[in-house]
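Dissemination and training. As part of the outreach component of the grant, students in the summer workshop were shown how a complex can be specified as a set of sequence lines and then modelled as a single object. The example used during the hands-on session is reproduced here so that future cohorts can follow it. Participants entered these lines:
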Amino acid sequence: MSEGLTFICLSVLIAAVGAAEVIAPLRTTPADNLRMREGASFKTAVFADLHFGENAWTEWGPRQDYNSVGVMSAVLDNEQPDFVIYLGDVITANNIMIENASLYWDQALSPTRARGIPWSSIFGNHDDAPFEWPLEWFSETGIPQLHCLTANASFAGGEECSFRGTTRLELMKSEIEQNTLSFSKDGPRNLWPSVSNYVLKLSSASNSQEPVVFMYFFDSGGGSYPEIISNAQVKWFQKKSEEINPDSRVPEIIFWHIPSKAYKKVAPKFNIHKRCVGSIFLENVAPQEAEMGMMKVLEKRPSVKAVFVGHNHGLDWCCPHKKLWLCFARHTGYGGYGSWARGARILEINQQPFSLKSWIRMEDGSTHSEVILSS
Amino acid sequence: MSEGLTFICLSVLIAAVGAAEVIAPLRTTPADNLRMREGASFKTAVFADLHFGENAWTEWGPRQDYNSVGVMSAVLDNEQPDFVIYLGDVITANNIMIENASLYWDQALSPTRARGIPWSSIFGNHDDAPFEWPLEWFSETGIPQLHCLTANASFAGGEECSFRGTTRLELMKSEIEQNTLSFSKDGPRNLWPSVSNYVLKLSSASNSQEPVVFMYFFDSGGGSYPEIISNAQVKWFQKKSEEINPDSRVPEIIFWHIPSKAYKKVAPKFNIHKRCVGSIFLENVAPQEAEMGMMKVLEKRPSVKAVFVGHNHGLDWCCPHKKLWLCFARHTGYGGYGSWARGARILEINQQPFSLKSWIRMEDGSTHSEVILSS
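and obtained this result:
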C-alpha cells in the first residue's frame, strides 16, 4: 500500500447534508397509494443518474456528492414537488468499497427526506455493479490508503474494506425499512434478479378509490445481470394492468432506467428534431441489450401515455413514438460522466381534465423544454 | 420460473469421482519444501483450464466435469508424476450459482488427491468471475428450475441459490484447510486482491537444505480485478528471489495463468514456427491488460529458465524469448471453449546435471512436443 491519497470519511458528508433532518420512524405498512391535494396539480421531480459514491478514495467523489445534494435541494425548493422519483444509478457501486453501499444511497435520499417529501426509486445499471479496480492501482503508485470506517459503528466490517458490493435486494430493503416516506418496493419475487418492479396509484383528492393515474416502475437491469426488461416483467405488467385498469380508462405512465431500443429509432438524426422537445441531443442512445416484448405491449395499450428513462446523461428529449411519448429525464448528479448543466425533469399531472405536462428545472433555477405529454 | 431444465445435483458427481478417496486430515503446518526422490527425476503434471462447474443448469456441465476427471486420471496414471500444478481457471465461477464454489474446486482436485499426489494451484480469470446471467433466461423461456442444494448440508443457504460468488480468499482458504497434500498459499497480504503468490523449493534427495529449483507461482488477475501482474508482485519477486537465491545459482521456473504481452511478440506468425515447439498454433495470444515490470525482471535474471501459462486453449507451444522460454500448457478440461484434444504439459527436472525437459501427454495416452527448456 502506498502512502497516497486518503479516503474522505463518509460521516463528514452525512453530517453536512443531514443536519436539518428529522429521523423518521420505521415504516409499518407498505404504501402504494398517492393522493392528489384538493384543487392542486400533482407535481413530481425526477432525479436521474445521481451516481453517489464515485472515486471515494479521492476528494473528488465526496465533492460531487455534495454538489448533487445542491442540485436536488435547488430543484426541490424551486418546484416544491409532491413526489420525487429516483430514476436509477443513484450510486456508482463499481467505485464503492465500503461494506454497505446503502450509506451512499441514503445520502442521495436525504434532501427529499429532509423536506418531508415522499419518493420512490428504481435501479440503474450502476447501483449493484461489481467493484472496478483502477488499473493504476497495480502500477508503481500502488493501492491508495483506503479507510472504510463506516459512519454507523454497528455495521459489520469496521475499518475493513469490502469489494463484494451490496445487492439490489439489500439496498431496497434498507431503503424501505428505514424510511416511512419511501414508496419503493422490492417487487414480485418471481421477477428477481430484477427487483424494483411495482405500481403506484395516484388517486383523486375527493375520492381515494378513484385513480387519476397509475405509475409503473420497472427494473431495466444492468450491473449484476443483463441490461434488459424480461418477458416475465412484461407478463407481470399485462396481468397487473388488466387487473387494476381493465378497460384502460385510467392513464398510465412508465419509469425505468435504460432506454429501450425504440428510443434509438425515434432519436433525432442529422440535427432534425421533428416533433421532439429537449435541449441536449449530444449522444447516441445506449439502449437495453434486447427487447423481450415490453415496448410492443406498451405501444398497443391505449392508456399508456409516456415512458421516462435516464442512463444517457447527454440526452434530455421527449419524442413521440406511435401513440405515446418516449422521454429522457435530465442528468441530476455531479457524479457520472458528462459536464452538461444539471437539472431534473418535472412532471405535472392535472385531473379534470387529465393532463400530463413536463419541463426541465435546472440547478440555476431556469426552466426549459416544456411539453404536453397527454395529447 | 419455468418448468424447464433441472440442475443436476452436485452430490452425484462428487460421489462418482471421490469413491476411492481417503479423507485427508486437516493440515497443520504450511508446506513450501518439495523433495526429489533418490536417483529419480522430479515429474510435474500441469493441469490448465479445467473449467469445472460450467452450465450447471443443464446436463452438459456435469458431463464435461466428469470427462475432465477422466483426462486428469489418464494423465496421472500414465505419467505417475510427483507433483501437480493447477494452472488457473480451475472453475468457471461465472456459471456457478451455488453458495460455495469450493465444491467444484474440490472436484477438480479429487483425482490428484485420490492418488496421494501433492499439488499446488493458482488463480485464473474465471475462478472468481461474477455470475453471468444467460440472456435467454429473460426471454419467454424464463429461468430454468435451479436446485442449489449443496452436498454438505452444513453450508449456509440450503437450497437457496446464490449469485454472489466465492472469493479467491475463500477458495484458497478452503483448499488449504481441507487438504494436507496442498502446497498452495494465499500469499502476502500486501499483494491482495492478487492471492496465489508464493514460492516452493524443490530440494535435493540427499540434502533437504540444497535447493534444486525454485518454483514461483503468481496470480495474474482477472475475474474480480484486472488481468494484470502488479508492480507490487514484481517487487515481492525481486525481494524474495534476492533473499533465497542471491547469486542466481539455483534455477527458477515461473507459473501464472494469463500470458504476458511478451508471448504476443514471440508467437509464431504466418505459420513460421522458427524455434518454437508445439502442436497447436490456432489462436491469437490473449495477453494481460498491461505490463507492470515483471517480464523485464525475469528477462534480466539469469536463473529464470521458463514461464508457463494457460488461458489460450488453442495454443500449446514453447518459444524461446531472450534467454528464457515462454510456454503454454495444454487445455486439460472439457469445460471452457475449444474442442482440441485434451492433455497436460509435463515437466521433468533432473538434478545432476540440472535439466528441465517438457512434453505434452494427451488423454489418449500419446505424447508429443518434447522440448529441453534448460539449455
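The interface with chain B takes residues 1, 130-131, 133, 135, 137-140, 142, 163-164, 167, 190, 193, 221, 224-226, 228-232, 289-290, 292-293 of chain A (CB under 8 Å). Students were then asked to discuss how this feature might be tested experimentally.
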